[in-house]
What we know:
Largest sheet: none
Order of helices and strands: HHHHHHHHHHHHHH
CATH superfamily: MetI-like
Shape: globular
Helix content: over 70%
Mean pLDDT: 83
CATH topology: MetI-like fold
Amino acid sequence: MLKWLGRLLLLSFAIIIIGPLLIVVFTMFKTTPQFYSDPIGLPTQLSWHNVTALFDKQPMWTYFRNSVVVTLSSVLLVLLLAGSISYAIMRYGKQAIGGVIFSLFAIGLMVPSQVNMIPIYSLLQKLGWSNSHLGLILVTASVLLPLSVFMLTGFMKTLPKEILEAGEIDGAGEWRLLLRIVFPLSAPYVATTAAFLFVIVWNDLLFPMLLLSGKDKLTLPLALLQFKGEFMTDYPLLMTGVLVTALPMILLFVFLQRYFISGSLAGSLKG
């Protein structure tokens, strides 16, 4: 009885997840009149008109390039900084300084990024970095750094200390231990953190809306707002843009699924 109840719950959950996704896919193949006449019905014919119109009416490749640049730069910067900080916390965790540093980053998780919007905007205006990808990358990295340090520190603490001690005996310095031993051994953990960061940065709308104004600087989520009209919205075109924006994240999880699962379960069997 409990087995069938569990399957029923899983089926219900799958329907809740897949239902809206199917509506988005069906809407992509509809014209605007067809959508407003039958929003959740099947399309009468399969047409790629919305896909071609999406790239004809908007500089989607420019938006895509902007999102790739901002996402890759932000994630790489965060992983480099968070990995170094987490390594330091792991190495000096038994000392007071390690606990203080970790506590400061843990406190950073409690502060919502929204409360800093006005100071961040004013600071970037004074520095001349408003409406620039550099300013957006630095702000995004600083906001995500506490979360990344919190995740990577927990992962790195599961690494066997004997390997680091063996490296020290062989004469390896701290940077060599980090780059040659810790990072390679932490590949599943880093991939897991990178996957979370990619989704957050790729789908971020708040800070691009706050910091970017030029049309040639827009990222994909911010560019989708242009499809929303004052009196009428072209939902088939908007849903096509949503699918195009989500496709890289789907491919990311397909290729990083092995690392994502292994990293998520890391340390689950340790006492």
